[in-house]
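B., you asked whether I could sanity-check this one before it goes into the benchmark set. Here's the sequence:
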Amino acid sequence: MGMFMRNKPERVLVRNTAILLLCTSLLACLPASGQKAALFGGYQLTRLPFLGTPGGGETSTLNGWNASLTGGLGPFFGVTADFSGVYTSGSKLHTYTFGPEVRAHIASLRPFAHALVGGGRSSGPTLNGTTNGLVMFYGGGLDIKASRLASVRLGQFDWMVTHWNGFTHKNSFRYSAGLVLTF
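And here's what the prediction gave me:
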């Protein structure tokens, strides 16, 4: 019955491959004058409510990783693809978000702000089962230039909005810090 009847693991692989090709194509098509890419990798701390509790309730702190790739479309504007994973007590949350980023260059400082929208998958007892949902990050941070090709992300602070199983949670927080490579 063709490609529409693939099983779930095959659909996930095809989707992830398509996202990777799209991001790679975007970077390859950038004009030479504004073509700069930044690759970030580091630690992440996330504070969020139990995802099945209406109105918030108890909160949980999760630790993990955060990685992003930003393609510059000009000196002050870019497009970011952000991926993360956080874990606690047998529970995990993975996110994949995309969106615009604005930035400034002030001596060796690079403040930035972004609005990222995408999806996420949570699973485990702390997060009330396994589910997929909508994830949005609104925030920014500060990178400090360490060398021509590397910067230190002193902090990235994001307000996190999630929509899981019919409930919207607006009181979540994400902090990330790590290393940024620019090429």
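One thing to flag: The longest helix spans residues 8-28. Otherwise nothing jumped out at me.
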